[in-house]
């Protein structure tokens, strides 16, 4: 195997971890879900470190890494809503934001003939709180009860950061597309 492809291989393994995570959620094996999510998080950090450390950037990896992250997050949120661990409306909001971002990226590419995907700071904050919420809900359901106010506050933070980051992408891409069209 070409070592330059190692980060992509790790990313593919993370993508495949989505299936056992969903299965464990459906079985109520929340401790296993936490272990699998930890492995997914470590693999995400490792593939990113390898890319930065050795310059092993690939075009495939540029698409595959965020795809793996989205599939894992959406699959986890969808399944947690299905089994009643998260409100259905919250899962719908998280998925809707990602759909809007994907459609916005496609539309931006169609208008400008290019696409620069730079995550917004608020989007990184949103992802952090989405992950903290998942972990907290799993801990609450399978390991030890957490204060309901804490979980409600996390849900509120996820709602706000999800909406703000989604709007941030829409506004940012719209302004850049208008500027690009005027310059052409």
TrEMBL record:
Highest taxon in the source lineage: Bacteria
* Catalytic activity of the protein: a CDP-1,2-diacyl-sn-glycerol + sn-glycerol 3-phosphate = a 1,2-diacyl-sn-glycero-3-phospho-(1'-sn-glycero-3'-phosphate) + CMP + H(+)
This protein's pathway reads: Phospholipid metabolism; phosphatidylglycerol biosynthesis; phosphatidylglycerol from CDP-diacylglycerol: step 1/2
The record's section on Pfam families has: CDP-OH_P_transf
EC number(s) for this protein?
2.7.8.5
Q: What class of enzyme is it?
A: transferase
Q: Which family does it belong to?
A: Belongs to the CDP-alcohol phosphatidyltransferase class-I family.
Q: Please give the name of this protein.
A: CDP-diacylglycerol--glycerol-3-phosphate 3-phosphatidyltransferase
């Amino acid at each position: 195997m070409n070592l330059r492809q190692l980060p992509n291989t790790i990313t593919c393994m993370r993508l495949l971890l989505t299936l056992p995570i969903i299965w464990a959620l459906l079985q109520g094996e929340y401790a296993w879900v936490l272990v699998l999510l930890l492995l997914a998080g470590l693999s995400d950090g490792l593939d990113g470190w390898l890319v930065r450390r050795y310059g092993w950037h690939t075009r495939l990896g540029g698409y595959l890494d965020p795809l793996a992250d989205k599939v894992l997050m959406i699959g986890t949120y969808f399944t947690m809503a299905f089994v009643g661990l998260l409100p259905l409306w919250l899962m719908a909001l998280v998925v809707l934001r990602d759909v809007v971002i994907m459609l916005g990226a496609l539309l931006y590419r169609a208008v400008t003939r290019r696409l620069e995907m730079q995550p917004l700071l608020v989007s990184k904050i949103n992802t952090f709180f989405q992950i903290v919420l998942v972990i907290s809900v799993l801990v609450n359901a399978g390991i030890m009860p957490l204060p309901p106010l804490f979980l409600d506050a996390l849900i509120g933070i996820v709602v706000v950061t999800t909406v703000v980051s989604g709007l941030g992408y829409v506004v940012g891409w719209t302004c850049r597309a208008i500027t690009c069209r005027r310059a052409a």
